[in-house]
Amino acid sequence: MVGFVERLKKDDNSIFLTLAILKYKPVKHSVQDAYYQTSITLVCPEPFGYPEPFVAWVKNGVVLQNSSSDLTLNLSIIAQRDTTKWTIDCVARNKHGADYHRFVLNLHSRYAMCTEFRDLMEGSRTVGHVVHNEQSAQNDGDIDNRGWYRFVIQATGTPVQLPDSCTEPWACGTQASGWLRGGHPSMEEGLVHRNVYFS
Prior knowledge:
Largest sheet: 5 strands, mixed
Number of strands: 15
Keywords: Disulfide bond, Signal
Order of helices and strands: HEEEEEEEEEEEEEEE
Organism: Pocillopora damicornis (Cauliflower coral)
Strand order of the largest sheet: 3-10-9-6-7
Helix content: under 10%
Structural class: mainly beta
Strand content: 35-45%
């Protein structure tokens, strides 16, 4: 509450005025990966203040979008190949002050998964390896969901495809094994979107 009280001011008519603030904003900057030529939507934390603040979106110091009449909390933008990192700020401002939240976007080629992956080579990660209790299951808490992974047969180094139908419980040496819905794409299809389901 102290931070909020510090943002109060009183005008000549003894009416309390509040500086613009972004309610419920994260303590740290939001950092995420994005891919060239794909759409990214960012959502600004809710602004508050009196008079009502306006919101501006600023990328690397240049205003992309602003509004003085209605609050523009969403920004949709296409990632361009002009750099490998964007810094985009959502700025709430009124005549008494401003607050902002920063989004840091690490930009990658859409084909990064072809060269920037980590091999998973444990022999227990095959569909045929079924565990029967929680103590025997792999803990995948260390997997970075922002990265790309490739399953490989340890003995030969041969890549292995994900199953494309529902797997039985506790398969692949883990509590919830993943399978690809929609089948594997052909070379002619190129880059496609598929969902991985966990059972």
